[in-house]
Amino acid sequence: MQETDRIVRAMNEEKNVRLLLARTTRLVEEARRRHHTTPTATAALGRVLTAAVMIGADIKGAETVTLRVNGGGPLGTLLAVACGDGTVRGYVAEPAVDVPEKWPGKLDVGSAVGSNGHLEVIKDLGLKNPFAGTVPLVSGEIAEDLAYYFTLSEQIPSLVALGVYVERDHSVGVAGGLIIQAMPGANDEVLRLIEDRVQHLGPITGLLRQEQLETVVDVVLQGIAHEVIDSKPLAFRCRCNRERVTSIIAALSDEDIHQALKTRGKLEVTCNFCNEAYDFTAEDVARIRAGTGTVGS
Ligand SMILES: [Zn+2]
Predict the structure, then answer these.
(1) Mind listing the pLDDT tens digit for each residue in 20-77?
(2) What's the CA-to-centroid distance between 81 and ligand 1, angstroms?
(3) CA distances from 96 to 74, 76, 122, 185, 222 (A)
(4) What is the mean pLDDT of the chain?
(5) Which CATH number characterizes residue 250's domain?
(6) How many domains in the chain?
(7) Separation of 240 CA from ligand 1 center, angstroms?
(8) 142 and 227: one domain?
(9) Which residues have CB atoms below 5 A from the ion given as ligand 1?
(10) Is 90 exposed, middle or buried (0-12, 13-18, 19+ CB in 10 A)?
(11) Is residue 214 part of a domain?
(12) What is the whole-number distance in angstroms between the Cα of residue 273 and the centre of ligand 1?
């Protein structure tokens, strides 16, 4: 049984090489269960959710990081919002879409996401203006695109590995990510050593399936004096509730509401981020609409 989802931050002794390592198996499985994603959509969304919590490794409290990827591929837009408390929510526009495997056992995330588009990061740190950075996609595989984002938009040379292993029964076997960043003054030789080692370690999911996060950190940074700074639990959690959904109903047209009530006898509003459905009866709707002064005829 794998340990629960969390992210750890580690640094070398000189404090110029930073390592982020996250296990996201349960939260990606929760996203799959909620959105009924196909294996390729699970892998793509899982990578985006994992990337979002890793970009947001430093945020606190009400701060958020939004990661949006649209590569023009059949999956459409992928979006994830990570919060300072370690929770993340997100969706893929076309969860039912699948594409043929690259080779047996290898999901083709790049083709499903597409590479004709952008990766966008919005950091809302409670300041007047949120920070926003956009880069063109390199491959649509997400990890490579995120490495390009860090290098270009934040000027931090980064090594990024993201992995989601989908089992035969379509459940998530293991998911997680590894980011290694070179801060100013980092020794080129140390970086080369780490990069070389990471390449030889094989897929990150293989390590995460076997080991605790601290053990994986020790393996990646073997021979380099380092310290794990902190650890934060992670979970898939949405911010929606019945009250928030009510505001959507107030904004719908009379015709849409009339149509829904007529055909289904109720109005169902589904949250994009977590796929939770909220039902409203004709009486509920009338009361909500009355409250906003836009009562239908
Ligand atoms: Zn929701």
Answers:
(1) 999 999 999 999 999 999 999 999 999 999 999 999 999 999 999 999 999 999 999 9
(2) 11
(3) 10, 11, 27, 46, 42
(4) 93
(5) 3.90.1280.10
(6) 2
(7) 4
(8) yes
(9) 238, 240, 271, 273-274, 276
(10) buried
(11) yes
(12) 5
